[in-house]
Amino acid sequence: DGGITQSPKYLFRKEGQNVTLSCEQNLNHDAMYWYRQDPGQGLRLIYYSQIVNDFQKGDIAEGYSVSREKKESFPLTVTSAQKNPTAFYLCASSTGVSRNYGYTFGSGTRLTVV
Amino acid sequence: DAKTTQPPSMDCAEGRAANLPCNHSTISGNEYVYWYRQIHSQGPQYIIHGLKNNETNEMASLIITEDRKSSTLILPHATLRDTAVYYCIADITSGSRLTFGEGTQLTVNP
What we know:
The complex is a heterodimer of chains A (114) and B (110).
Chain A: E1 4-7, E2 10-13, E3 19-25, E4 31-37, E5 43-51, E6 54-57, E7 64-66, E8 76-78, E9 87-94, E10 104-105, E11 109-113
Chain B: E1 9-13, E2 18-23, E3 32-38, E4 45-50, E5 55-56, E6 61-64, E7 70-75, E8 84-91, E9 104-109
């Protein structure tokens, strides 16, 4: 079945450490996105990529980095520069230009800094 | 993308229709209205979208007013599993960077 896989589901990090969240899709979608969600809040866009080897900052990119070396993969690194990294992280993909079916989301990674 | 306004919460009895409103008074002519929902601790799920005409699929119906300044998502026979946060978004295409507000928390009661 086609879909988006995020791993791990839960992640614990010590302060000062970098950590990388995985996002893989087998939907042949061109565009991929990373969102952050804090308790009781909506989703905020961190980074997005419309095509391989290209990505743009979203609304809250500071303290995060991404890469898009393959169409299927869009990993997110939460660096030690991110002051408050504890949150629920969601990856999504879309066909890029199609108006059908919207975004497909992964099941999320819950990151906790201990 | 146009700003959307939704009530923060709504209740509905199981088996009844749930009607979720959304105002998007500044929507432009080429912006679609998208609806997603997010069940607790899961990723959001696409429900339906439309431009001008009313739309229906297996999950819901979308009614857009003639002036396109507001819309209503209708779940015809709500079940307990429909309890979720529902997001209304106005944007040009699904390929652009969609902005999710805080949505409406729908609680379906037995």
